[in-house]
């Protein structure tokens, strides 16, 4: 028992958790009251996790019919569902619990990125130092800092972890090849389970991951028979347990993915795929530009970043230190020359896909793979494929660092006594220190607006005023106490319908807006006085309504208009 607590991977978990808490600070300073980056998207995603936990406990059949966007159907599919976090959503209730839950998951997601990166690179055959450098470079790459407000994009640690488990289960490593004696159906099964969990978090990262897993399956399906024909005397490459695991695992993964995808295919499309993909496709120079949230490169890259069409998704610098280490990894490495060339080719393909329509208009690259899929799957931002480019760069960098450590150890063996000196030890850890510094974050942590008392008492279906594309996401978070049906909602989908709604209620309370809301079966309008200053509804609470056939009621810090 004691040995398991100081096992290599136990130490990796401890270090990853401490590093995540430090590099995401001050997330855990006021975890009940602040959110990372901004209060908009994190508020909506905190609501998503809370809704998933709440509805699975109370009425699982209504999972996709959320309380927001009333009376639209399948409204929970208006974005990555984060279903894999639903068990956490079952603990606690209300905005404070949702905020705390989000912040804890946010820190844990960073830790899992490092744990997964370390496990994969270690399984591929790199030493501890090389794997540590790769893990930190993958988890805290500068480009990822622009995504700190998107928990669905940060939550990618299951990808390298699943690949590591699958490789371990099949007894394969990049450095040592296939070792049948190290096969383990349990590890393979664990890999498929982690893959299922990862896909359940969202399709923005899940669909490319499914493509990669499909490619691996193709290699296994065709590679095993070829190996048996070439080496008939060798023991079977896969045992019967692995055959069963590799049959059931993909089938269950495909089944779960298909079930989750059904409501996404029912959601109305957000617009022409080619137009959206072209808008979000980053230019090649994006790979050298850091995001505003980078403490090292944020200010120095202000000017080049301003030239980008959508800087929030186009500052794709994985780190100049990582570039340098990967380049060194092409020259000297523990990986063979053939393996390095294969990694380089995979990196080139990934970068081409990351450029979207900026590489021959994407006709033979991004569009055939993702252009025909509905926008609700979240695949119209090519820059997010930088995840895979970063992972490949990290593997190349790990090869160089591992080779450097190997040579340093060989050099130390010539010493008397045969022990590395302090400067040699420092040199082996310098890449890790440099990668850590380049991943230093300047992410803001704004305070979440306090929940109005009326949001805990007023029932729906209702409209909450004021309503706007950004502030509605905070209203969604406030609704996590009662989850009352409300027409408010925001997050990228149903945008035209929500814009029409806001236009139609801009003059509320007037006969036209009242009739419009009644046609949507809205019973109440809740005006939040503290939030209405400077909006078209600033004076609404003082307008006489007796002649309009509705009733007004003052409730705590708000006004409730009863339409029926």
UniProtKB/TrEMBL annotation:
Mind telling me which residue stretches traverse the membrane in this protein? Answer: 9-28, 104-121, 126-143, 149-167, 187-203, 209-226, 247-265, 315-334, 341-360, 385-405
The stretch of residues making up the signal peptide is none
Q: Please tell me the species this chain comes from.
A: Paractinoplanes ovalisporus
The protein's name in its UniProt record: Uncharacterized protein
Q: Which controlled-vocabulary keywords does the entry list?
A: Membrane, Transmembrane, Transmembrane helix
């Amino acid at each position: 028992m004691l040995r398991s607590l100081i096992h290599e991977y136990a130490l990796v978990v401890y270090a990853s958790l401490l590093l995540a808490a430090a590099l995401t600070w001050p997330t855990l300073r006021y975890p009940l009251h602040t959110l990372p980056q901004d209060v908009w998207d994190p508020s909506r995603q905190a609501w998503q996790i809370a809704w998933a936990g709440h509805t699975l406990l109370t009425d699982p059949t209504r999972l996709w019919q959320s309380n927001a966007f009333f009376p639209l159907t399948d409204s929970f599919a208006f974005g990555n569902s984060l279903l894999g976090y639903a068990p956490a959503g079952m603990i606690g209730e209300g905005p404070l619990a949702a905020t705390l839950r989000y912040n804890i998951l946010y820190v844990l997601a960073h830790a899992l990125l490092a744990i997964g990166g370390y496990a994969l690179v270690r399984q591929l055959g790199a030493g501890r130092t090389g794997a540590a450098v790769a893990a930190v470079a993958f988890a805290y790459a500068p480009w990822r800092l622009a995504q700190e407000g998107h928990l669905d994009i940060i939550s990618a640690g299951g990808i390298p972890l699943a690949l590591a488990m699958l490789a371990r289960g099949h007894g394969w490593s990049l450095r040592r090849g296939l070792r049948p004696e190290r096969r383990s159906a349990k590890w393979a099964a664990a890999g498929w389970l982690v893959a299922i969990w990862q896909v359940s978090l969202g399709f923005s990262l899940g669909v490319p991951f499914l493509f990669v897993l499909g490619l691996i399956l193709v290699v296994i399906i065709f590679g095993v028979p070829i190996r048996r024909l070439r080496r008939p005397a060798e023991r079977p490459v896969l045992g019967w347990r692995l055959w069963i695991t590799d049959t059931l695992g993909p089938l269950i993964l495909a089944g779960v993915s298909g079930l989750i995808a059904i409501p996404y295919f029912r959601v109305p499309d957000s617009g022409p795929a080619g137009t959206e993909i072209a808008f979000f496709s980053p230019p090649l120079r994006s790979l050298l530009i850091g995001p505003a949230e980078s403490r090292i490169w944020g200010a120095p890259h202000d000017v080049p970043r301003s030239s980008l069409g959508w800087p929030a998704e186009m500052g794709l610098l994985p780190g100049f230190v990582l570039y340098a280490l990967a380049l060194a990894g092409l020259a000297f490495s523990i990986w063979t020359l053939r393996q390095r060339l294969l990694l380089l080719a995979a990196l080139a393909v990934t970068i081409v896909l990351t450029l979207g329509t900026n590489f021959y208009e994407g006709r033979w690259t991004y569009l055939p793979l993702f252009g025909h899929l509905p926008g609700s799957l979240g695949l119209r931002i090519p820059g997010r494929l930088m995840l895979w480019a970063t992972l490949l760069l990290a593997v190349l960098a790990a090869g160089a660092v591992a080779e450097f450590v190997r040579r340093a150890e060989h050099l130390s063996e010539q010493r008397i006594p045969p022990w590395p000196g302090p400067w040699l030890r420092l040199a082996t850890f310098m890449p890790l220190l440099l990668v850590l510094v380049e991943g230093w974050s300047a992410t803001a942590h704004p305070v979440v607006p306090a929940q109005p008392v009326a949001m805990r008492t007023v029932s729906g279906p209702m409209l909450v005023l004021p309503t706007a594309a950004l502030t509605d996401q905070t209203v969604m978070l406030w609704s996590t106490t009662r989850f009352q049906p409300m027409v408010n909602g925001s997050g990228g989908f149903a945008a035209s319908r929500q814009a029409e709604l806001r236009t139609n209620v801009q003059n509320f309370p007037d006969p036209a807006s009242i009739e419009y809301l009644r046609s949507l079966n809205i019973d109440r309008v809740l005006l939040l006085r503290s939030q209405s200053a400077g909006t078209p509804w600033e004076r609404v609470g003082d307008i006489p309504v007796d002649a309009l056939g509705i009733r007004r009621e003052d409730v705590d810090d708000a006004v409730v208009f009863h339409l029926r």
